[in-house]
Amino acid sequence: MAKKNKTKPRELREAQKKARQLKAAEINNNAVPAIAAMPAAEAAAPAAEKKKSSVKAAGMKSIFVSENKMYITSFGKGNSAVLEYEVDKVDNNNYNKTQLSSKDNSNIELGGVTKVNITFSSKHGFGSGVEINTSNPTHRSGESSPVRWDMLGLKSELEKRFFGKTFDDNIHIQLIYNILDIEKILAVYVTNIVYALNNMLGIKDSESYDDFMGYLSARNTYEVFTHPDKSNLSDKVKGNIKKSFSTFNDLLKTKRLGYFGLEEPKTKDTRVSQAYKKRVYHMLAIVGQIRQCVFHDKSGAKRFDLYSFINNIDPEYRDTLDYLVEERLKSINKDFIQGNKVNISLLIDMMKGYEADDIIRLYYDFIVLKSQKNLGFSIKKLREKMLDEYGYRFKDKQYDSVRSKMYKLMDFLLFCNYYRNDVAAGEALVRKLRFSMTDDEKEGIYADEAAKLWGKFRNDFENIADHMNGDVIKELGKADMDFDEKILDSEKKNASDLLYFSKTIYMLTYFLDGKEINDLLTTLISKFDNIKEFLKIMKSSAIDVECELTAGYKLFNDSQRITNELFIVKNIASMRKPAASAKLTMFRDALTILGIDDKITDDRISEILKLKEKGKGIHGLRNFITNNVIESSRFVYLIKYANAQKIREVAKNEKVVMFVLGGIPDTQIERYYKSCVEFPDMNSSLEAKRSELARMIKNISFDDFKNVKQQAKGRENVAKERAKAVIGLYLTVMYLLVKNLVNVNARYVIAIHCLERDFGLYKEIIPELASKNLKNDYRILSQTLCELCDERDKSPNLFLKKNKRLRKCVEVDINNADSSMTRKYRNCIAHLTVVRELKEYIGDIRTVDSYFSIYHYVMQRCITKREDDTKQEEKIKYEDDLLKNHGYTKDFVKALNSPFGYNIPRFKNLSIEQLFDRNEYLTEK
């Protein structure tokens, strides 16, 4: 007889405990999201397959409550909402149901409605006819209202701030939370941009430059910035402006703005040079202004609120935004025909059923406007499925030199199919993908669609491949195109077509890499699209609730237009190539990150790389460094957020490097090992392979690469390829380390943003807070809300009011902190101090097993750091444990996070490693 598994009950209890923790962490819609600002394209492959809720998969979008009625919506075309049913409560457990949608538009069938559950089924796709249960949102609602309680107790204040009055529904607050989500992600990205710009100054062992961007705002013109003494400002403000102006000039001198593609014109015309500096100042000042809006509660400063300040400041700022957008659009339009004439000529020759002008317009949509990204599915994935299953010959090496061109033409044909010829098929594919529950189901849907497409496009793909002839392409490239540019007039966009909010977002993309741009724009588009749908539903004849936004939020009345404009911004924005004028600075950073002392002189750099010499075949090393370091987006990211010299020092810590390598998939480790190691033992264990790669990263030296030849053959070429692989691995590992710590920090940036916002809201309803200043003590909000529960049970915060045990825990954590500690913590988060000080403390960690543990150990060392130039401070309570254990102290984390204790789900998520780390971190695919 088999033995009983004695550990099973224990495992079951652990699983149940984890499930409770995960559920508790998602109680409140306002809880901090998982790894903040992490681009979707970078998300790690999870241990378990991703699943979406069956309710969403079956087609239900939202349930709105207004007074005593519920309104149920389904997913329509794209992200649109279809108003399906009105449900009116008759008595305790009886409801009248009225269908509002037509039979042609309806996507769900409503079943029974009780006070606890709502039952419905999908009419199409997923589980058609199968009954799905979802909770009745009026269950456990307040005694005087059908709308469920707001746990923070801020619903009414938020409604008054955004709409000027309160409402007995859950519609307005859902719209509001979409706006608040926009502010959260802007808080993250603008904080990171400010840090990166400060970091570009490259000042060592000093935190004073952290204030450079902090003093910049869009309140002053460039004339005031450059000549403050001519203004009527106070002497103190004038002094701050002078310091900022001096630092601004220091930043220009570093040439590191060249990493963002910003390049001072080479000209003796001082007017041109001054115009460039003026534009750069405007860009930095707008970034600084946005940071002030999203990192401090600015509800009282109407003229300088987030959504309208750009229309209220001096017109010279708007002129700069116009210039930046117009310059980009002109560049795209000017280069379109010349840059694409070969492909257009090939398409005109192959697509016999189309007029030439029509092909040109469609190709403009495809290349410039990227309309294929708005279809709701991936054209690229369909093509990959087709070639993987049926068109393997197109992957032959003979097509390597023309592969990009060939795939682009194939994608264009698929785009035309769904965009012009068979729109219904595209809509059907979107519905199927929406109904899918898992990633495997999605892959199967793409595979089925690819099978259908192959029969339709096989001959076209063969035709494209036949045209991939070097001589044909060369001749087409030389030929002139007889083309009237006026046919694109209706397609072309101009700066005047965009609102200034959209132009401002475009300006922010100057300081982001491609993945960051994609994440920011994707999130903003999603939120504005949601807001547009909320407003549409609210204005519908069936619901018809008031939706007049207050003055500071009128921008959102144009949510449909902004959604469309942000699609354009997403398509025209891209990570800019480093400016040529910054090359010497970049070579210095590149050599430093490879191990050369950063005190090396400019002349020595020029000598090593032969920058001043001319001749054929002598610039191999220069070109190798350019191609494999400077042009690497990972190198640029490291320079933006770290320090080249310190990165090299951190890379010597094998324990940390092994931890990062442990997060890279095994198959990728195998490839790295094979390409980096000169004599690889492919039979060795994965642990041994990771250990060998870590050793190589630890010992990486510029001397390993100084004899590499760019135009190499035979063994020399093998050595060059191995050197490229080693550099790629090194930069990838350090990028993953820094990027993940930036992502961890982003979670706390959002928490501070929400604390500032919520403090301003609570001040309106709690007299005890009216005279308080959050900067004096960041614990004051959580402390006051706890005291109100203990003294008079009058706290509006239900998280604390309804959970005495957790409230007492928060009170202990508040008492374990002090105002100085939490103020320093807040400033360290705002200035990404953990990333800057990583090298100083990471070597002292005993065990490296999570980014959370790295972050909080370094953070706690920064908090307990003694300042040499100040009076000896009283020893912080947890300092001895921190130094003794060589790891972060859990109670110290909770004490530092006590300002966030008023929102218990967020507080727990940020303080308990098991909850914080329940989502995977960024890894290399």
Explain briefly what this protein structure is.
The protein is mainly alpha-helical.
- Structure class: mainly alpha
- Percent of residues in β-strands: 5-15%
Count of helical stretches: 39
Rounded radius of gyration (Å): 30 Å
Poorly predicted regions: 1-10, 16-50, 205-209
Number of strands: 7
Strand order of the largest sheet: 1-2-3-4
Average pLDDT works out at: 86
Largest sheet features: 4 strands, antiparallel
* Overall body shape: globular
Task: Draw up the topology in text.
Blueprint: H1 8-25, H2 54-57, E1 60-66, E2 69-75, E3 81-91, E4 94-99, E5 108-113, E6 117-122, E7 132-135, H3 155-163, H4 171-199, H5 211-214, H6 222-226, H7 235-254, H8 270-295, H9 309-312, H10 315-350, H11 356-369, H12 379-389, H13 403-421, H14 423-435, H15 439-467, H16 470-478, H17 500-508, H18 514-539, H19 559-572, H20 583-593, H21 602-609, H22 620-630, H23 633-641, H24 644-650, H25 654-662, H26 666-676, H27 686-698, H28 714-763, H29 780-791, H30 798-801, H31 804-816, H32 819-830, H33 833-836, H34 838-841, H35 851-863, H36 879-885, H37 890-896, H38 904-911, H39 913-916
Antiparallel strand pairs: 1-2, 2-3, 3-4, 5-6, 6-7
Helix pairs in contact: 4-8, 4-18, 4-28, 8-10, 10-11, 10-16, 10-17, 12-15, 13-14, 13-15, 17-19, 18-19, 20-22, 20-24, 23-28, 25-27, 26-27, 28-35, 31-37
Descriptive report:
Helix content is 56%, strand content 5%. It is mainly α and 925 residues long. α8 (270-295) crosses α10 (315-350) and α28 (714-763) packs across α35 (851-863). The longest helix is centred in the last third of the chain and has 50 residues, at 714-763. The protein is globular. Residues 1-10, 16-50 and 205-209 have low confidence and may be disordered.
